[in-house]
Amino acid sequence: MTNKQTVFIIDDDKGIRDGLEMLLESIGLESRSFASGSAFLDVYDAKMTGCLILDIRMPKMSGLEVQRKLKQLNCLIPIIFITGHGDIPMAVEAMRLGAIDFIRKPFKEQDLIDRINEALKIDEKIINEHNSKSKVDSLSAREYEVFERVADGSMNKVIAADLGISERTVEVHRSHVMEKLKVRTLAELVRIKIIYEQLN
Amino acid sequence: MENDKRHISFSPQNAILWYSVIAGVFSACFIAFVLLYIERQERAHIDRVTQSTADGIKTVLEEDIYRRMESLTEFAKLSETSNIMSDNEWDLLSKALYYSKQGYHSIVWVDSSFHVLRRMPIEGSETAIDFDLASQPMALLAKLKYQQQNSKVIAVPLTSINGNRGLGIYVPVLNKTLTSKKVEGFIVNVLLFDPYIKSVLPTYLLAEYKLTLFIDDQKVYSDQTKHPPTSGTWDRQAAFEILGQRWQVNLVPNNEFRPFILFRMFSLLIVLGILLSIFITLAVYTLMSARNKTKLTKDDRKKTEQLLKNLPGMAYQASNRTNRPMIFVSEGCTLLTGYSKKQFEKQNILWGKLIHPDDDERVCRTINQALKTKHLFELEYRIITKNNDVRLVLERGEPVSSIINDEFIIEGFIADITSIKQAEVDLLQSYAFSQAIVNSVVEAVITINNKGLILSFNDAAQKMFGYTFSEVKDKNVKTLIPRSYNEHHDQYLAQYKRTNKTHIIGTGRELVAKRKDGTTFPIHLSVSEIPNHEEKMYVELIRDITQQRVLEDEASSHIEQMAHADRLNALGEMAAGIAHEINQPLTAISLFSQTAKNFCEIGKFERLPELFDKISQQSLRAGSVLERVQMMTRQGDRSKEVLDSNMLIDEVKKLAESEARLRDIKIQLLPCHQKKNVFVDRVQIQQVILNLLRNGMEAMQSIDCKNGAIIKLQIKLQIKIKADNYIKILVIDTGCGIPNSMINELFTPFSTTKKNGTGIGLSISKSIVEEHGGHIHFSKNKPAGAIFYFTLPIHEEGIPNDK
């Protein structure tokens, strides 16, 4: 968790932008607003974390287009769509593309806040997953074999026999894996293994 | 002469000048000639006078000397006989001699040796001193001896001791014996030339001439006091012999003498010359005038003849008898009657016979009356020509006394007025005809002059305005117009006069007029100028359009109703967009409110004012959306106002934008580069634009904006030189376009291409635009889409729009 989570707001209506920013400020959330999708894309960075509140109907580039573009960039930020006219086909399309929610204006502020918090959690989870995967990917082939077997609950001795290496070597690999995955307990290691398997 | 003649004909005054100059030169030559002649004559005259004077002097002197000689000789004889003469006797005799004639210097008795014995006058020894008679005795004696042989008297020139010249006349006193004569002495008579000449010759002679006397070529006397003689050419001499001596008189006329004569001559000459010049000038002038007059008279006669010949009628002289036989007729008679001039003048045709029998008696009566009163007469009657045509003639004549006898004759002129009369009748008929039309039309017809004063006022006008013609005659036409419009009318006329450009002239305009009772009513006024009139005149044709206005108002309220319905319909269709427009600020307000609440909970009260500001802004925003919607729903308020056309389309754009956003279409505004005002009903015109925009957007969306998602709303200027200027408002889309089958019924009601369309949008737009004096059109956009545009007249500054 290097970056603090930020709520990004994209809406062409200044009133809405201001309102949202201030509301989030009042509940102690970091926020950044953009008047158009392209303005956001210009500053987009893969390290950004948090969630995105996106107006569907905007001139030039609509919310759905922004969503598509982000998808192409492998962006994993959860998106909450808000719209003045909630038409079903658009909502379906948005959800299909992975939006986490679709809110109609006017909305109850608390609903929105709940959704945002939800989204932030999802984001956190996604980031964790993402981190787990990359950590696992950083393991060498031998280390990965050791990791798999440790997570399955196999004993060092069994692993050493299974892989045809000495027990001592397994222990060295095991400590490297723990170090690389930044885990201290076996339980944590197991959780990473589960997330990783889910992702694949 | 040829040249001179031309001058005369060209300008008589000039010619007279030339002739006078020539006459002057002639008289100058003549005077010079006479002067020369006189000079010669005068010369001859002076010659003659001088010569005769010289001769006269000669005669006088000769005679005088002889006389003196004779008396001296007698005196000498007396002295001779009484040899011894007593002193008393001598005194008495000599004194008698001395005083009998003037000019003696002295009379002396000398002895043979020239000693003075006695002398007269006794006193005044001057003589003795002056002339020493004894001073040259030898010469004298020699002379005496010589003289003794021939003459008894001797004359000797003497010179006094003072140098004065004198003459001594010696008469010998003889002692006579029978045989011889012995000279005992002499009686000497001494003459001094100076006093002598003056005493002998008349003084006027001496005043006019310079006289010089020579004896034996010796100058003995010269008039020294006189001025030098003029010149040698005037000298004249006369010579004679006395006592054996040659006397010569030399005469030169004095200077004064000549000018005197000359002056007399000159005066005479100048007077003569002037008289002559005047006479010649007068003569020449008279001659020229006479010539000119003759020429003018000739010209006049020619002109008169020509004039008479060309007259559209005939001039005549008729004798005062039955049927008026003609003495003279002009050439026009042939054209008038068909008979020739000869026939009339030879009295083969009598005028009276030509007169139409019905008019004959009246003509005779009038002429007889005129003859009695000797007054001019004028009458119209008919004649029958050679071809048996009947013609109407006008005769104007006057009885005048004949030169030949005492009888009166009639002179006059007869003209054919058949056609004139016909034209007059036609004109009257035509006037009555047009008058009848003017009076029977329902429109008021008023003619005014260029000052706006009423010249005529037809029956309809009288009925319409309640004035009689006499009430408004020569009054300004403004009387018929309410005060608030007065200035406009004057402006129209002034503008027309200044620019010659019609504003209402020829086209027509709707105005308000005022009746006599002060009520006003709407009129349609058209003005046209009456051509070919010296002063500009205008005909105003006025139609009472009260009724028309009522109908129009009804129609327009109908349009408004329809338009309103259409607007409501449009609003319904636009509801989604409008709802969104309102939703936005409402959402924002909600957000701000929640935020405020949160801040309150955590005690951040300092942030609240900012939030309230934002809430207020968003409320206003929502309000303005509602305001626009409200305006579209308004009904019945159809007031027109002067609006900036750019502002007009900008407002429509805002209104349509929410819908455009819904459709993902952008409205591009292309305003006019100049600010042009229009005089319109804001709501209605905006409705038209909105209608067109929405149609365009719909068409674009129907093909998913595949040709682009921009619809253009543009204003163009349409400036025409002669007609009024317009703006053109265009809505240019890139939609599906209009199928060819629909083009002809685009603007007819209830024709639509839309599934849910009512088909009244465009037809209402058309009605609205036309009510505003414009036109709505359609054309195809390239490569795809449609262009709808309509025109609106530009509202010019300063010119009121009364419609």
Topology:
The complex is a heterodimer of chains A (200) and B (803).
Chain A: E1 6-10, H1 14-26, E2 30-34, H2 37-43, E3 50-55, H3 63-72, E4 79-83, H4 88-96, E5 101-104, H5 109-137, H6 141-151, H7 156-163, H8 167-180, H9 186-199
Parallel strand pairs in A: 1-2, 1-3, 3-4, 4-5
Chain B: H1 2-10, H2 12-81, H3 87-100, E1 104-111, E2 116-120, H4 126-130, H5 137-148, E3 154-159, E4 165-176, E5 181-192, H6 193-200, H7 203-208, E6 209-215, E7 218-222, E8 236-242, E9 245-253, H8 257-310, E10 313-319, E11 326-329, H9 332-337, H10 341-345, H11 351-354, H12 357-373, E12 377-384, E13 390-401, E14 408-416, H13 418-440, E15 444-449, E16 454-457, H14 459-465, H15 469-472, H16 483-499, E17 509-514, E18 520-530, E19 537-544, H17 546-602, H18 608-633, E20 641-644, H19 645-662, E21 666-670, E22 677-680, H20 682-702, E23 710-718, E24 726-732, H21 740-743, H22 761-771, E25 776-780, E26 786-793
Parallel strand pairs in B: 21-23
Antiparallel strand pairs in B: 1-2, 1-5, 3-4, 4-5, 6-7, 6-9, 8-9, 10-11, 10-14, 12-13, 13-14, 15-16, 15-19, 17-18, 18-19, 20-22, 23-24, 24-26, 25-26
Describe the structure.
The complex is a heterodimer of chains A (200) and B (803). Chain A has 200 residues and is an alpha/beta fold. Chain A is built from 9 helices and 5 strands. Chain A has helices at 14-26, 37-43, 63-72, 88-96, 109-137, 141-151, 156-163, 167-180, 186-199; strands at residues 6-10, 30-34, 50-55, 79-83, 101-104. Chain A has a 5-stranded parallel β-sheet, with helices on both faces. In chain A, β3, α3 and β4 form a beta-alpha-beta unit. In chain A, α5 packs across α9 (186-199) and α6 (141-151) packs across α8 (167-180). The model of chain A has no long low-confidence stretch (mean pLDDT 85). Chain B is α+β, with helices and mostly antiparallel strands and 803 residues long. Chain B has 4 domains: 44-253, LuxQ periplasmic domain, N-terminal subdomain (Beta-Lactamase, 2-Layer Sandwich), CATH 3.30.450; 311-423, Beta-Lactamase, CATH 3.30.450.20; 441-544, Beta-Lactamase (2-Layer Sandwich), CATH 3.30.450; 551-793, Heat Shock Protein 90 (2-Layer Sandwich). In chain B, the strands form 6 sheets. A 5-stranded antiparallel β-sheet of chain B has the order 2-1-5-4-3, with helices on both faces. Chain B has a 5-stranded antiparallel β-sheet with strand order 11-10-14-13-12, with helices on both faces. In chain B, strands 16-15-19-18-17 form a 5-stranded antiparallel β-sheet. In chain B, β8 and β9 (245-253) form a beta hairpin. In chain B, α1 (2-10) crosses α2 (12-81), α17 (546-602) packs across α19 and α19 runs parallel beside α20 (682-702).
